[in-house]
Amino acid sequence: MKKQFLIALFVVNLVAGLAQKTVKVQALKLKYALPEGWVAEVFAVEEPWEKAQSVYCNCAGILFTKQHSNGALKVMVYPSTVSGLDSTKRNRVGDLHFEKVEKYFKTTNKVFSFEKRVSVFTDVKKGKKACDAIRYMARPEKITYIIYTWQENNLAMDPKTERELFEMVNALEPMN
Fold this sequence. Notes:
Number of helices: 2
Strand content: 35-45%
Largest sheet: 9 strands, antiparallel
Order of helices and strands: HEEEEEEEEEEEHE
CATH architecture: Sandwich
Number of domains: 1
Helix content: 10-25%
């Protein structure tokens, strides 16, 4: 009887862990269900988003982080209006500057169609490459979501890391 109870308790905990709670951030018009191991930090949600103040930029957004043995995995999401896309702050995450590349790929997840650019972040304070980075842009309706993914302390991104990062990107959805 005790063994059956422990098995039942294990199954209940497993199912509860698999059922991800959807978090809605109304001010950013975005919702997400955090994959296992990820944490979210919503910052500067007031509108207009391009005038908000945060440690990352004069903008609003969400930083997702997952601890990893080779350096934390990071996903930064900036919402923007079309007029806000010309801002240089949309090419940065704090001191990390995304180096522009012309080549891009089209990719999709369950709800977004993305423009994907693979490049590097340069640390503007140190003046050298910080790490590989990927920039996704999605434009559902009147909002553009700019999404950066990278791994801290790891110069080159391997395919497994890229899949783990895209797992978080795949969990994002626009709010209707």
